[in-house]
Design a protein that fits this description.
Number of domains: 1
Number of strands: 15
Shape: globular
Helix content: 25-40%
Structural class: alpha+beta
Bound molecules: fructose -6-phosphate, magnesium ion
Radius of gyration: 20 Å
Number of helices: 9
Length: 364
């Protein structure tokens, strides 16, 4: 019997503007997922949030892209959105692009990351969930976990990781994908995934046996809706230990709060701050962007845990650095590279300004 881990997430409304979701929404999700667990569709689940996004971490035995599981997630978010509307929460139902389910949650607004595997004797699985950023935010940390020997000692000194990993990369603009092997094709891989707005790591496999190692939600909300309706705050599932990066090798990349796009109005670069669940409240200039990390054991498809990875005071320095970087970036105000380049901004007044000035522009 194989176990499936599905994280399906959505922003269905929040308090204090786009800051934090409401407990009543999580209660509604809990009600729906509890029923599904009683009926046997789910084996287990854990509900958390990063800022205004609700993350439903679900385990079951139905495989990935299962229609019933996806419908459950969709119905749950629809019901939560009704609660949000009743409370007049901000952005109530904002990520739900359609009110009728059509077989798969992909393309309907919520983000999803899923993987199916045969459980080992003991199977540690990590959930990393972000707010106020985009799927490409995981490119750098995932590269570090699975391809950078200066992060992951096991790549060098553990024979079970030494063969390297395959990276499946999505081109989210042209809607195509490519698989690249590390370490052999490392430089080519980096040439792509350095463009975080376009090339996004979707899945990672261990080369020696093609075993799934990581999966990311890559749904680009803004591209799907054809207009801005919120950043596609991503989640990642990462397997760990005994042939995969150790737990601490999966969290280590986040000790460097790298710059990601998102933050205020989805239009600014800022540091990705690793925080505990309690501190997943991005309020300073609607940010800075956050990531939480939860460490579970998956046991007969049940979720044991979690450990709140970034509650560890050893990440205090990363948070202090992130605050310093936030101060520095903020002083640029509306200038690049704090503000994103024009074609990547989610909000822009530029076409209107150009139109207004059209008659006043002169050839030089
Ligand atoms: C970023 C985000 C917020 C909003 C901002 C303006 O992902 O959600 O920064 O973009 O609060 O929101 P509106 O346009 O709804 O007033
Ligand atoms: Mg929101
Ligand atoms: Mg969000």
């Amino acid at each position: 019997m194989k176990t499936t881990v599905s994280i399906i997430k959505a922003d269905i409304g929040s308090v204090g503007g786009h800051a934090v979701t409401h407990q009543k929404l999580k209660d509604k999700c809990n009600e729906y997922l509890s029923n599904a667990k009683e009926e046997g569709l789910l084996t287990d689940f854990y509900i958390t949030n990063c800022g205004d996004d609700i993350d439903m971490i679900m385990t079951h035995t139905n495989g990935t892209d299962n229609e019933e599981v996806h419908k459950l997630a969709f119905d749950t978010f629809m019901a939560g959105a009704e609660v949000a509307k009743g409370l007049k929460l901000y952005g109530a139902g904002q990520d739900l692009l359609s009110d009728t389910f059509s077989g798969n949650i992909k393309g309907m607004g919520p983000g999803s990351a899923e993987m199916e595997f045969k459980e080992r004797g003991s199977d540690p699985v990590f959930a990393y969930c972000c707010d106020k950023t985009e799927p490409g935010a995981f490119n750098l940390p995932l590269f570090r976990m699975f391809a950078d020997p200066f992060n992951t000692a096991g790549l060098v000194i553990d024979p079970s990781l030494h063969g390297g990993f395959d990276f499946e990369v999505y081109d989210v603009i042209e809607n195509r994908k490519v698989v690249m092997s590390c370490p052999d094709e490392m430089y080519d891989l980096l040439a792509l995934i350095g463009s975080t707005g376009r090339y996004v790591i979707k899945r990672i496999f261990r080369r020696s046996d093609n075993e799934i190692a990581a999966a990311v939600s890559t749904d680009k909300l803004n591209l799907m809706a054809g207009k801005y309706i919120g950043k596609d705050d991503p989640v990642a599932i990462v397997r760990s230990q005994s042939g995969f990066p150790a737990g601490g090798e999966t969290s280590e990349p986040f000790a460097f709060p790298h710059l990601v796009s998102g933050w205020m109005r989805g239009s600014h670069n800022g540091p990705l701050m690793p925080v505990s669940q309690a501190d997943a409240r991005p309020v300073r200039f609607d940010g800075p962007p956050r990531v939480i990390g939860l460490g579970f054991q998956v046991s007969e498809a049940k979720l044991i845990g979690p450990v709140d990875m970034f509650a560890d005071p050893a990440f205090d320095d990363a948070r202090n650095t992130a605050t310093k970087v936030a101060n520095y970036m903020r002083r640029h105000g509306p200038f690049e590279p704090h503000r994103l380049p024009a074609d990547e901004m989610e909000y822009t007044s530029l076409p209107g300004v150009l139109e207004k000035l059209e008659d006043r522009f002169e050839d030089m």
